[in-house]
Amino acid sequence: MPRPLPLRAAATLTGGLALAATLTACGGSSTTGQGGDAQGGGGKTVTVYSADGLKSDKGDGWYDKVFADFTKKTGIEVKYVEGGSGEMVQRAVREKTNTQADVLVTLPPFIQQADGKGLLQSYSPQGSDQVNGADKSADAKWTSVVNNYFGFVYDKKELSTAPRTWEELLDARYKGRLQYSTPGVAGDGTAVLIKAMHDFGGKDQAMDFLKRLQANNVGPSSSTSKLAPKTDKGELLVANGDVQMNFAQAKSMPNLGIWFPAKDGGKPTTFALPYAAGLVAKAPHTENGKKLLDYLLSEDAQKLVSEVGGGFPARSDVKPTDANAIELTKLMSGVEVFEPNWADIDKNLTDYVDAWKTATGS
Predict the structure, then answer these.
(1) Minimum mean pLDDT range among 11-20, 179-188, 219-228
(2) Which DSSP string do the residues of 218-244 spell out, in sequence order?
């Protein structure tokens, strides 16, 4: 398997499993594990606030496996809460005077937002030296633990082939059967704005298109993960998502297909959307949080990213050859990967989301 594709360079993925990164996610919450609270980092629990996609309702996701292995190895139970990337950051902000989370896992630009709000403390997990520089912060506030890409899904039962362009989605056949998660709330929803601004050549052009697309859009959704089941059942023909989450979901959703929109006359594009993890400042169980971050980046856990989670390892020295890795190679072949300007997006995210609200009437 080739080394991860640096996020700095746009490239066409033509062969080998490209493991780039620079992260979806959505609504709902759940908790696993038990144990009492403790002060000063002791106790037998660690609390994770995370964007969804890595834990399965059926208990067979990457989080399910690695959390169970971590508990077996350390005796530390994992308490887990999931939601949209923005939702998890805002929850952590509200709890800043009474911190509950030990580890925060979210997608860009929300991991940068969390850092900017003073929610993260520096820590370099064991194995982070094998994570490419573009996939972690220079000051060790966060590092990618699972690499991923933005994408869309479609209903393979009702559509014989995937749509090819953004413009096709304006067709009347998609009216009331197209939906994407809410920008500013869900990481994947925010990714819709980022990709549209790239593909259409700027904010104004993207908002003009999304304004027209609104005629077919079902409406807001705080959860990206809930859109895939609707697409598999035929309630929707097209929805947004991300490769890792949708690839994992497709194992139990036979009508779910993954695709990457192109602008009319252009190539299909995507960008890296990794699950990035950081140690929460003033975490109630700091030492347990460090141990969990170490384990998430361990070779044992990283080797399961594609096989169990349907994602891409964050460590460049872990090169999977399992059946999922081979299938992901084919899926990404021919898709152009671009690098968003994350500093600009972090700075101007509120303005971009407000422009989207104005354009769509949301």
Answers:
(1) 11-20
(2) ----S-STTHHHHHHTTS-SEEEEEHH
> What's the rounded mean pLDDT across residues 73-85?
95
Residue whose entry in the numeric block shows the structure tokens 């990714």: 191
- Residue 42 pLDDT: 55
228 neighbors 253 (Cβ within 8 angstroms)? yes
Place of tokens 């308490």: 79
Pairing assessment for the beta strands 103-106 and 45-51 based on DSSP bridges: parallel
Which residue do the tokens 């998660």 mark?
181
Does residue 240 carry a pLDDT above 60?
Answer: yes
Contact 81, 30 (CB under 8 A): yes
Label residues 195-210 b or e (16+ Cβ within 10 Å = b).
bbbbbbeebeebbebb
Nearest to 7 by CA among 149, 156, 110, 126: 149
CA distance 313 to 135: 11
The CA distance from 108 to 353, in Å, is: 15
Continuous segment of H or E residues that includes residue 147:
strand 143-147
Q: What is the dihedral of CA 65, 66, 72, 74, to 10 degrees?
A: -170
Q: Residue 228 pLDDT > 80, yes or no? A: yes
Region 338-360 average pLDDT: 94
Name the amino acid, one letter, at 324. Answer: N
Match 């995370």 to its residue by tokens. 50
CA distance 256 to 279: 35
DSSP H stretches of helix in 95-186: 110-116
Tell me if 284 sits within 8 A of 38, measured CB to CB.
yes
Task: Give mean pLDDT, residues 147-175.
Answer: 97
Render pLDDT for 81-97 as a digit per residue (tens, 0 to 9): 999 888 999 999 999 99
DSSP of 57-117: TTS-SHHHHHHHHHHHHH-PEEEEEEE-HHHHHHHHHHTTTS---SEEEE-TTHHHHHHHT
Structure pTM?
Answer: 0.80
Quick one: pLDDT band at residue 57, thresholds 50, 70, 90?
confident
Q: What is the mean pLDDT of the chain?
A: 89
